[in-house]
């Protein structure tokens, strides 16, 4: 019974999405921290280089993990990657615009504001990746 429940839980695409997202977030934060503390620590605004590098690595890792373990698609790698990045750009843009509005205008504490935005952008990302980044039509390679 426990094994069956665990199997059903692991086969839920939403659960796999959250697991991959959590893993990717942790890896991205570790990479950002390592680059900031050891690679770019002596550079003026080195943390911004760390941020850019960690995003580049994080988006690439997320693409591979979402593609392989969450949406389980094949073919159209370059098209999927371009779409995948565009979903991330939208999420980042929403975050960049909404955070100062919530904090400065609505006077929401920054940590709570970011939490609310994170929920919204996570939902946007899931549906964006499912219906756009990794969408397949009837003539595309079947999913497995």
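-> sequence recovered:
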């Amino acid at each position: 019974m426990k094994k069956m429940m665990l199997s059903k839980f692991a086969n839920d695409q939403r659960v796999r999405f959250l697991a991959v997202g959590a893993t990717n977030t942790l890896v991205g934060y570790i990479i950002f921290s390592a680059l900031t503390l050891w690679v770019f620590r002596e550079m003026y605004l080195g943390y911004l280089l760390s941020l850019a590098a960690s995003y580049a690595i994080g988006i690439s890792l997320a693409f591979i993990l979402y593609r392989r373990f969450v949406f389980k698609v094949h073919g159209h790698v370059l098209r999927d990657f371009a779409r995948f990045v565009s979903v991330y750009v939208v999420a980042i843009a929403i975050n960049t615009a909404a955070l100062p509005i919530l904090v400065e205008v609505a006077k929401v504490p920054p940590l709570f504001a970011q939490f609310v935005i994170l929920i919204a952008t996570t939902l946007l990302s899931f549906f964006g990746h499912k219906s756009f980044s990794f969408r397949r039509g009837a003539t595309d390679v079947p999913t497995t």
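Residues 77-105 form the longest helix (29 residues).
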